[in-house]
Amino acid sequence: MSTISLRLSESLHERLRELAQREGVSMNQLINSAVTEKISALLTEEYLKSRAKRGGRRKYDKVLGKVRDVEPDANDRPDRGEDA
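The structure assignment produced for this chain is given below.
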């Protein structure tokens, strides 16, 4: 495990302390969780961009052409009473 020194504004530090206390975790755990979530989001965005580059309209149409032309089950139909 590594140790880093982190500079936070007083207001951010106080909010962090309050949130950690409210969540019942240490500030360290809350920071670790926040950093993990951010890294995951960035890596997911990167992954999706790389996958999007591999696609194209022709591939999309080819896959869509494999879908059977049938009416959806009753449970899969949108509720006609709700505004869309």
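Interim note for the steering committee: The first helix runs from residue 10 to 23. The mean pLDDT is 91.
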